[in-house]
Amino acid sequence: MAFGQIPPTRTRSFGSRTLPLTGGSMPPLYNLDFWANSYLGVPFYQFTSNWDQVGATVNFESINGGPANVGDRVVSWKNMWLNSGEGDAVINPNEFLASNKPFLRERTYGGKTYKGLEFTGNEYLQINGSTVSDAYGVPEPIFSTGGTSWQGKTGASFLFVIDQSPDYTAGTYTSPVQSLFYSRQPNLQGSPPATIPNLWPNTEDLGVQFLRNHKPNASTAISTELAVGPQATMQGITTFGTALTRSPIIASTIQGFGGSEMMNFPNDQEGTFLEYGAGLDFKARHANSGFQVILLEYDNVNKVRHEDAPGFGADRAYTGPSVKIYGMSNPNTTLPWNGLDLTVPKITFTNPMLRDHTLFDKAHAFLGGVPAIRLESSPLVNQRGNGFRGIIYEVLMLDGILSKKDKQSLSKQLLRKYGSALT
Fold it and tell me: What is the spatial distance between Cα 18 and Cα 256, in angstroms, rounded to a whole number?
């Protein structure tokens, strides 16, 4: 498919703008039935690392200008299917420090070399959603826990191809708390409160929170826990303060709704270990290290219900979208996410998400980390980097959830693309 070309079956109008048709060939669009009902016929957002330049369009822009070479710091990652500047993942060359910009790296798996962006805890890229929503006249939030009407209100999905470092030890001005994708303001309540040395751009109210690690005392991947938000039920006792994971405070010892956690503290009447799904291994709640595919799914079709716990004055019964995390990694390892099947979730949260809540639309989202923020709990008070540690090879965002058939098809296509790293 030529760069930006809309499939001929597309019938929707998206305002006065048209997608670009530039010379040269791009990596092919994933062959999915999903596109037949999508608003543009192509992803609103897709970032891949298996191309360098098509015509005048550059995939990775160097801090020094022009196409990045391996080893350069990167200030822009091209959003593949749209016009220049629409939905690109960027950081201003003069913004904050040089260390806020990820490196372009190469890594070889089974004789095949892949390029990707390396993050070490301080780096991040931000995406301005209005550059897409406004340009194409999108009539409703693209990514929402309630989904979009053109995809049948099924939900939203976010795909990541990463190689996560097994080392979680905090470095200079970095925290063990790691954000992979984040689109809400931090909560600055606490004692002492967190501080933001530089102002964040506008974000969603209580948007996507996908933390690959939210335990501040972790040292290795197997001791860390994943966290997502915005959750719609009681977030529990404030056992530690990280401005990225806290909810609005309801009482001095109780967090509110909309935060990002995986565990319930104290455990509610649903049981001790239900948050990662019946029949799934306890280890599945931990982050995998190494090369892997992750599909984060906000499922508005198969909702879950939370029953309020007696004695928890701030808790509430609530039915809302479920969150599922699917994964692919080397089936020959002992990692909790091993296997190449994208149709069975590795984790199914029992806590519902907020209904009909915008995850990412006209505001900003952060990929690979967040702008500088000082965490509030000792001994993390001087640690400002709260970003992912590892390499990101690909990101795909979908305005709905994939059918089982499409999940099977996508897993096969990903296996063909990254087989030397996944097997």
Answer: 43
What does the block give as tokens for 87? 């939905």
Position 328 confidence tier, pLDDT thresholds 50, 70, 90 = very high
Q: How many angstroms separate the CA atoms of 33 and 406, rounded?
A: 7
Kindly report the backbone phi and psi dihedral angles of residue 174, in degrees, each rounded to the nearest multiple of 5, phi listed first: -125, 155
Token duo for residue 83: 């016009």
Q: Which amino acid is at 75?
A: V
Q: What is the DSSP letter of 40?
A: S
Which residues does 384 contact at the CB level (< 8 Å), separation at least 6? Answer: 122, 173, 174, 175, 197, 372, 373, 374, 375
39 backbone dihedrals φ, ψ, rounded to 5° = -70, -40
Gap between the Cα atoms of 182 and 140, Å rounded: 20
Average pLDDT over residues 109-118: 97
Radius of gyration of the chain (CA): 20
What are the helix and strand counts (H, E) for the chain?
A: 2, 23
DSSP string spanning 231-266? B-S---B--S--TTTPPPEEETTEE-SS---SS-SS
Compute φ and ψ for 97, nearest 5 degrees.
-115, 160
Per-residue pLDDT reduced to its tens digit, 354-406: 999 999 999 999 999 988 777 655 555 666 788 999 999 999 999 999 999 99
Please spell the DSSP secondary structure of 180-230, one letter per residue: EEE-BPPP--SSSPPB-SSPPPPBBSS--EEEEE--TT--BGGG---EEE-
Beta-bridge mates of residue 158: 296, 397
User: CA-CA distance, 267 to 358, in Å (whole number)?
Assistant: 28
pLDDT at 179 over 60: yes
Structure tokens that stand for 351 in this block: 């806590």
- Peptide bond before residue 27 is cis, with ω within 30 degrees of 0: no
Q: Which of helix, strand or coil describes residue 406? A: helix
Rounded Cα–Cα distance for residues 419 and 423 (Å): 6
Whole-angstrom distance, CA of residue 367 vs CA of residue 387? 9
DSSP 102-129: PEEEEEEETTEEEEEEEEESS--EEEET
Residue whose token pair is 């209100």: 153
- Residue 385 near residue 369 (C-beta atoms within 8 A): yes
